[in-house]
Amino acid sequence: MAKRISSLFRPQRPVDQGTLAEGRRLVEDINRRGILRGAVSLGALAMLTGCDVSENDSVQQALRAVSSWNDRVQAALFRPDHLAPTFAPSQVVKPPRFNAYYPIEDVKPVDGATWTLELSGRIADKRPWTAQRIYALPEQELIIRHICVEGWDYIGQWSGPNLRGFLERIGADLTAKYVYFICADDYTESIDMACALHPQTILATKYAGATIADPFGYPLRLRTSTKLGYKNAKWIKAIEVSNTFTETFWSKQGFNWFAGI
Amino acid sequence: MHWINAVAIFIMIGSGWKIYNDDVIFGFLHFPDGVVIGKWAQYGLQWHFFGMWIFVLNGLAYFAYGIAGGRFRRKLFPISPREVFATVGDAVRFRLRHDDLTHYNAVQKVLYLGVMAVGVLIVLTGLCLWKPVQFSELADLFGSFQTVRLIHFLCMSAIVAFIAVHVTLAVLVPQSLVAMLTGGPAVDDAATSNKLASR
Prior knowledge:
The complex is a heterodimer.
Chain A: H1 17-47, H2 57-77, E1 116-121, E2 129-130, H3 131-135, E3 140-147, E4 153-160, H4 163-169, E5 178-183, E6 188-192, H5 193-196, E7 201-204, E8 206-207, E9 210-211, E10 221-224, E11 236-242
Parallel strand pairs in A: 1-11
Antiparallel strand pairs in A: 1-2, 3-4, 4-8, 5-6, 5-11, 7-10, 8-9
Chain B: H1 2-21, H2 41-68, H3 71-76, H4 81-92, H5 106-130, H6 136-142, H7 145-172, H8 174-182, H9 187-198
Helix pairs in contact in B: 1-2, 5-6, 5-7
């Protein structure tokens, strides 16, 4: 009979039926008792809330290493000129959905009259900007989908100066790796330069044609079509262009840093 | 490959339930803390985006092996509708037999192919949830972001239902587990050795 080798893993010789018969009772016993017991104890282990393996230092280190690897994969997948879908003004949700690390009642409004945008790092012209000057810059409008890491989404209509145009205007080093944002509520966020230079990344000053309301980032926030919601820093008070990676508000807590969509 | 897949599926479902809980699709359905993986949202996400590598790489290796080695063609085809009905009939009358473990019955063939198709679909919808902008062409085929989420969720539900039946039947037919651990009887050789033994 012609022998067909179908698998590298399949033994070349048939299984010794004698051993199989002897072992069968034992294995059946394992099946019946062991699997039941195993299933019960595995379930019991899972029931032990507060004893989460994710918090174990070495496990957390490994998971974060995978998350960093995923940052690199996402950067490789990023298509710099690929535009996110845009929508019609009739689909815009008003007002936008609130998101922050605290409830909407705790929002501390920023005074636009005294606010300035500070610049630092690899930028030629570091003079601070007043709201008046930023609001006078040419605007770009984006009607794009906001996607939160939690799973919800909505369509929003944002306008303000294009970030790439702004970075060019202030003489930023566009070959630097990161653009870092510091916010009035001590939130921090940073994005990779490829995202900062994407045509659908803006410093938003308006929502649905009117100045952004306090809970959504007045006077200045980031809005990009290529990142999850939490990357879009609100109430920005300083921008730094840098080659040094600094952990951000959420990445410190274990959320993925790149968070591209 | 089966057991690597089992571990990957366990991670993906448990962490997926944690992620689901942050913004439930169905108001009545919230997975209890005891059955999810990851105490906090970020841990659930970390596990999910770690498990995806195991699931996808193992899955690709399995498909490559199944297709190139001819295993899928030999084991899963052809499927005759009449045979499917006959097997279902036997099953509801508790007359299902597994005399030859190397041969799948028609219902097994349909279910195994079905769960593989669901596995492909859950990966594709997963890609669209992870990268709805980078893979916008693919995401558009499925619909809006929430539609993709729903399909991803339904695929998970189908896999959970499959596992429930699959595990129950495997425990009811313990020889199948023996076969999984020993590598199983070799198709042609086993027939030969049986003939020899009966002489």
